[in-house]
Write a sequence for this structure.
C-alpha cells in the first residue's frame, strides 16, 4: 500500500493553511493590537514570522524608486541566489545621488512655499484691517478681529519654526512648537479666521443695508405725509383767509360804530374830566414844591450841623469831578462791554468755570461775613479752561463773573457799588484811562455821586492848596487818601462793594511805575478793610487772571484763593443762564439779615437807636467808636 500521495496532499493543505493564517494576521491583525503591524516575513519552512532581511527592505526601496523614476538605469531586480553585502552597498551608492537631488529639490520647493506664505500674510492683514475700520465698535466683529490677530501671530511663528531645524526652535522661541509638514495645514487656520472675519463684515454690511433701506422708506413715507399735510394746510389757509376777510369787514363796521359812540361820550365828559385833571395837576405841583423845600431845608441843616459853609471849602464838588475826569456813562459802557464780550467769546467750559466761582467756600464766606473783608480770586495757572487769555479784551471767565456779579448787586438799592475793568483799557496806550490812577478816579467819582445823592458829601478834608494841586495832577497817594476820606462819610453798616476785575492787566514790563501805583492802591484797600473804626461795610473783590507778584505781596495769603477745576459745577455757564442771580440775591439777603440781627441785638440792650450800654450802666454813643 503506497502512502506518497496522501503525505503530499497533507503538506499542501498545511502550506495553504499557513499562508491563509499569515495573510489574515497581516491584513486584520492591526484591528486587534498594534504589535501585529511590526514589519516581518513569514518563513514557510519553519511556519513562523521572522524579521525582514536586508534583501527584502532593499527590494522595497528599489521598487519604490522604480515607480518614481522609471527611466533610471538602476537595477530593478535582485536575485536571492547571488545576494551579497557588496551588492547592497553598490546599489545604495547608485541610488543615493538621485535621492539627495530629490530631497534638495523638495526642500527648496518647501522653503519657497513658506516664503510665499509669508508674503501672503500682509495682504490678509490689510483685508482684516479694512473691514475693521468699517465697524470699529461692533463687539462681535471685534472679537473676530482679535481671533484673527492671534491666529496670524501663531501662523507666523509656525512658519518661522518650519524654516528652522528642530534643535534650533527651542533656542529661538524658548519652547518647541508643533511642526506640520504640510504648509496648507499651517495656513488653514489663518485663512479660516479671515473667512470668518469676511463673513462677519458681510453680515454687518447686509444689516446696514437693511437698516438704511428701512430709514429711507420711513423718510419717504414721512415726506409724502408732510406733502399731504402741506396741501391740506394750503386749502385750509385759503378758507381761513376768506373767513378773516369777512371778520375784518365786521370788525371795521363795529369799530366805526364804537368810534361814533366814543365821540358822543367824549363831548359830554370832556368838561368833567378837564376839571378833574386840572385839580390833580395842582395837587401834584404843590406836593413837589413842598418836597423840594424840605430837601433844601434838610441840606442847609446838615451844612450848619457840620460847622462848615460851602464857600469855605478849598474845592467845590464840580471842581473835584473835573479833576477826576471820570464819566459814569463810560463806566456803565465798560460793564455792558464786559458782559457782551463774555457771552460772545467764551466757550462752554470757560463759562462753566465762571459759574464755578460761586462754589468757592472763600467767596461764600466773603459775601456773608458781617465785617469788612477783601478777597482776591486768582486763576489757577495749570487750569486749561483759564489759559491762554482770549484775544477779546475782557473775555475771561473771571471778567464774566465780575460783570454779572455787578449787574446782580445793582438790584440792591441800599448797596454802594464801585467797580472798574482795567483789562478794557490797558491794551491801548492812547486810552486816557489806561493808567492805574484811573481806577481810583473812577471809584472816587462813584463815591462823590453817591454821597451827593444822599446829601452827605463833605469836602472839608481838602484843607490845603497843595492837596488841591495833587488832586488836579492825579497824585496816587492823594487819590488814595481822598478815597478813604469819602468812604468814611457813608453811614454805619452801609454795604459798599468794590470790584476790581483783571488787576493783573497792569503787569507791563514797559511800565515799571505801574507796579508801584497798583501796590499802593492794594495796600490802601487792605488797610481800609482792616480798620476797626471804618463805619461802612466795605467788601473788596479783586480778580487776577494771571499770577502777579505785586498781588501776592500786597494781599495777605488768607485773603487769596485760586479757582480750581474740581470746583466747577459744569453748569450752563454765562451764556446758559447767567450767573445765578437767585443765588447772589439770597446770599446777599442772608448777609444783610446777619448784620441787621447784630444791630437789633445792640439796640435791644441799649436805650434806643444808635446807643449801647456800658458795663457801668452808662450810655455809649456811636461817637465813642468813631
Amino acid at each position: 500500500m503506497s502512502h506518497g500521495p496522501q503525505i503530499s496532499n497533507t503538506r499542501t493543505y498545511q502550506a495553504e493553511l499557513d499562508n491563509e493564517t499569515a495573510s489574515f494576521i497581516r491584513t486584520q491583525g492591526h484591528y486587534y493590537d498594534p504589535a501585529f503591524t511590526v514589519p516581518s516575513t513569514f518563513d514557510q519552512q519553519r511556519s513562523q514570522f521572522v524579521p525582514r532581511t536586508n534583501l527584502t527592505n532593499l527590494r522595497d526601496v528599489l521598487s519604490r524608486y522604480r515607480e518614481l523614476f522609471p527611466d533610471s538605469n538602476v537595477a530593478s531586480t535582485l536575485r536571492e541566489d547571488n545576494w551579497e553585502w557588496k551588492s547592497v552597498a553598490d546599489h545604495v551608492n547608485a541610488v543615493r545621488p538621485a535621492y539627495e537631488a530629490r530631497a534638495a529639490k523638495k526642500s527648496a520647493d518647501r522653503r519657497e512655499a513658506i516664503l510665499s506664505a509669508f508674503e501672503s500674510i500682509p495682504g490678509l492683514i490689510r483685508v482684516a484691517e479694512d473691514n475693521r475700520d468699517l465697524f470699529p465698535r461692533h463687539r462681535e466683529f471685534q472679537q473676530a478681529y482679535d481671533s484673527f490677530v492671534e491666529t496670524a501671530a501663531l501662523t507666523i511663528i509656525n512658519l518661522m519654526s518650519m524654516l528652522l531645524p528642530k534643535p534650533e526652535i527651542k533656542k529661538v522661541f524658548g519652547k518647541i512648537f508643533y511642526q506640520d509638514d504640510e504648509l496648507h495645514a499651517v495656513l488653514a487656520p489663518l485663512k479660516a479666521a479671515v473667512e470668518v472675519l469676511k463673513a462677519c463684515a458681510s453680515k454687518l454690511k447686509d444689516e446696514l443695508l437693511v437698516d438704511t433701506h428701512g430709514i429711507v422708506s420711513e423718510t419717504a413715507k414721512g415726506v409724502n405725509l408732510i406733502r399731504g399735510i402741506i396741501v391740506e394746510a394750503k386749502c385750509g389757509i385759503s378758507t381761513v383767509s376768506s373767513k378773516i376777510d369777512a371778520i375784518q369787514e365786521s370788525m371795521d363796521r363795529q369799530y366805526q360804530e364804537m368810534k361814533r359812540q366814543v365821540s358822543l361820550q367824549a363831548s359830554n365828559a370832556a368838561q368833567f374830566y378837564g376839571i378833574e385833571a386840572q385839580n390833580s395837576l395842582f395837587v401834584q405841583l404843590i406836593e413837589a414844591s413842598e418836597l423840594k423845600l424840605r430837601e433844601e431845608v434838610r441840606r442847609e441843616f446838615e451844612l450848619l450841623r457840620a460847622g462848615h459853609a460851602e464857600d469855605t471849602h478849598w474845592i467845590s464838588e464840580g471842581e473835584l469831578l473835573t479833576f477826576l475826569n471820570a464819566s459814569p456813562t463810560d463806566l456803565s459802557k465798560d460793564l455792558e462791554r464786559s458782559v457782551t464780550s463774555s457771552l460772545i467769546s467764551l466757550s462752554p467750559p470757560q463759562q462753566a468755570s465762571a459759574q464755578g466761582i460761586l462754589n468757592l467756600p472763600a467767596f461764600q464766606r466773603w459775601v456773608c461775613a458781617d465785617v469788612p473783608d477783601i478777597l482776591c480770586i486768582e486763576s489757577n495757572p495749570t487750569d486749561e479752561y483759564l489759559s491762554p487769555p482770549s484775544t477779546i479784551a475782557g473775555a475771561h471767565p473771571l471778567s464774566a463773573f465780575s460783570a454779572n456779579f455787578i449787574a446782580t448787586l445793582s438790584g440792591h438799592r441800599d448797596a454802594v457799588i464801585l467797580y472798574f475793568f482795567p483789562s478794557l483799557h490797558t491794551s491801548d496806550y492812547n486810552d486816557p484811562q489806561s493808567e492805574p490812577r484811573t481806577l481810583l478816579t473812577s471809584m472816587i467819582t462813584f463815591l462823590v455821586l453817591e454821597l451827593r445823592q444822599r446829601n452827605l458829601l463833605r469836602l472839608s478834608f481838602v484843607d490845603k492848596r497843595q492837596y488841591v494841586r495833587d488832586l488836579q495832577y492825579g497824585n496816587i497817594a492823594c487819590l488814595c487818601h481822598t478815597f478813604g476820606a469819602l468812604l468814611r462819610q457813608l453811614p454805619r453798616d452801609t454795604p459798599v462793594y468794590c470790584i476790581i476785575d483783571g488787576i493783573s492787566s497792569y503787569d507791563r514790563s514797559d511800565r515799571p511805575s505801574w507796579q508801584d501805583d497798583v501796590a499802593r492802591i492794594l495796600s490802601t484797600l487792605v488797610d481800609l478793610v482792616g480798620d476797626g473804626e471804618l463805619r461802612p461795610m466795605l467788601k473788596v473783590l479783586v480778580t487776577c487772571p494771571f499770577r502777579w507778584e505785586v498781588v501776592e505781596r500786597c494781599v495777605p495769603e488768607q485773603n487769596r484763593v485760586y479757582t480750581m477745576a474740581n470746583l466747577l459745577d459744569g453748569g450752563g455757564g454765562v451764556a446758559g443762564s447767567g450767573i445765578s442771580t437767585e443765588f447772589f440775591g439770597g446770599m446777599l439777603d442772608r448777609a444783610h439779615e446777619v448784620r441787621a440781627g447784630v444791630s437789633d441785638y445792640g439796640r435791644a440792650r441799649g436805650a434806643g437807636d444808635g446807643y449801647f450800654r456800658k458795663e457801668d450802666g452808662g450810655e455809649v454813643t456811636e461817637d465813642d467808636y468813631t
About this structure: The CA atoms of residues 287 and 293 lie 10 Å apart. The radius of gyration is 54 Å.
